[in-house]
C-alpha cells in the first residue's frame, strides 16, 4: 500500500511560519519555484471512498483541513486546496506548480491583502407576517378596504388577503435580500452567490434569503463587519437575521488555469 501520498492544504508565496502545534501534526513544507506548499504524507487507506461517505469522518477532517489553512493565513495570502486534494508524489506536485505557475502568480496578486467573508441571511416569516401592514402598501390598502366593508365583502377580501400575504412576503424577502447583497458588494472587491439552503440543510427553522461570499480588502474588513452588525440590529424586529462569518480562505475567488 502506498504510504507517501502528498495531501495538500494550501500554497503560499511567502515563507510559511507554521505554529508549533500544527507542525506537531506532521505537516511539511515544500518550496518550489518561489511557492511554498503546505502538505502532509498520507496513505491510500487514510482517504478511501468509504471514509468520504462517513459524515462524521468527513465533518471532523474537513474542520481540521480548514483549521490548518486558517492558521497559515496568519502569515500571508494562501491559495487553499479543496479538502481531499492528494498528489501521488513530489514530482507530480512540482509538475502542477510548473504547469499552473502563471495562474498561481495572478491569483496571488488578486487575493493579496484581501479576505473572504460569508454572509447568510434568514427570514422568520412569522415575525415578518406581523409587520406586513407597515411594510406592504398593498396589504395596508387592503386592510383599510376590509375595515370599511360589509361583513360579507370583508370575508371575501380576507380570503384574498391570505393569498396576497404570501406573495408580498416573497417580494419583500427578495427586495431585502437584494438590498443586503448590493450593500455588501459595494464594500467588496468581488462577490459570489450560492444556492439557498433548505431548512433541512441549514438546520434552522427560518428561511434563507441570501447565501453569498465577498472578497474584502483588509482595509475595509472592519467596516464590512460593522455594516453586517448594523443590519443585524436594524432589521431583526421585522424578522431578518444577518449571519456573517470570516475571514475564510478565499476558496470562492480562486481560479487556477493552465498556461
From TrEMBL:
One annotated Gene Ontology cellular component of this protein:
gas vesicle
Q: Name one GO biological process term.
A: gas vesicle organization
Please tell me whether the keyword Lipid biosynthesis is annotated for this protein: no
Q: Does the entry feature the keyword Endoplasmic reticulum, yes or no?
A: no
Q: Where in the cell is it found?
A: Gas vesicle
Keyword annotations from UniProtKB, A to Z: Gas vesicle
Q: Which residues form a coiled coil?
A: none
Q: Which Pfam families match?
A: GvpL_GvpF
Give the similarity note: Belongs to the gas vesicle GvpF/GvpL family.
Q: What is this protein called?
A: Gas vesicle protein GvpFL
